[in-house]
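Field: sequence (string)
Field: structure_tokens (string)

Example rows 1 and 2, in order.
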Amino acid sequence: MERKLTCIVCPLGCELRAEITDGKVQSVTGNTCPRGAKYAESEVVNPRRTVTSTVRCINGSVLPVKTDRAIPKEKMAECMKIINNTIVRLPICVGDVIIRDVFGANIVATQNK
């Protein structure tokens, strides 16, 4: 089986082709650097994403947040449910952990409030 991907590791956006057998990447072509091959393998075998969103503040405003590392792509909807059910008290500083250990990542503030 062949899967076509666009690499997102750098601005070049290489068009990648990954040959897959039994759920494993056998080869990657189209990458101009080794990072492209690594990205293709990760995307095929274990896709992960950084989640960005907002949480409600007790005063009615919203605070922008993100995961401090990528989480499994299939857990994004569950992560959003957790974020949407959270209300924080101010003040908050950039980098403060808002929610700990959500599928292996912390949800952190991306703005001072």
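Row 2 begins here:
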Amino acid sequence: MLLHEVKEPFDDEDYIYELKLDGIRCVAYIEPKSVSLQNKRFKELTPIYPELSDICKCVKKRVILDGELVVLTNGKPDFFALQRRSLMTDSFRISLAAKKNPVQFAAYDILYCDGKDLTDMPLMERKKILSENVKEGFNLSISRYVSTTGVAFFELAKEENLEGIVAKKKDGLYHIGKRTHDWIKIKVMQDEDLLVLGYQPDEDGKVKDLILGYYDNKGKLKCRGKVYLGVSKAEQRIIAEFAKKNTVKKQWFDKYKNVVWLKPQLVGTAHFMHETESGGMRQPIWKGLRDDK
């Protein structure tokens, strides 16, 4: 089941609210003596996360669970730690990482139990069946939720620097492969004013990806990454016009190729989830140029 996205949180007594965990979506096929984990592309994940092989001890019947794989750092989901785990291929390194940074499976829905398809049942009935048939332990937990108070819950997620929340309709069914308003995600995003330091042109030579940066507290230019979503044609023309008289030969950052580098004068705002480990932006969107900076 897919999620619809909105920008603002809301209160509604017809919905429950869960944390949006910053991890990898996963469906777990569990029998009393075996486990199979698959991501959204149906890739088999079980060998990558051997520490989850014992979650079969949490059930006494065959079940299919929908949930999220997460690695916790200081009690909070750490996507980059999980990403490092997901890229490992060496079995010895995987076994060491499984002990040092174990992956957790957070279950928030149950699709099948003991021979019965549950997808046509209302969400709260599925939640009840989940809690009655799956025990926590062995790196498996069951997602908690609150009712009605979505705005306050979102503000708490924002305060704790978490990814966001998900609103789920209490009587909603499980729509396999469909995106509906029964599940709504609201992400915690942030804005930052940044310098337009260059752009990568498209095959016709027009402005495409913007290279963004900022001055650190020592006055040195630092890279914040690049963005292409949200750059309007009007702003592409403004940047191209600016470039006619304000290009520089100096390459501000070595990591990018085929760049028209600009004098650090244009300022605009980027909208993104949070800073990556390397100082970049996660899921950035361009909001626009600023003429007041």
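free_text_note (row 2): The mean pLDDT is 94.
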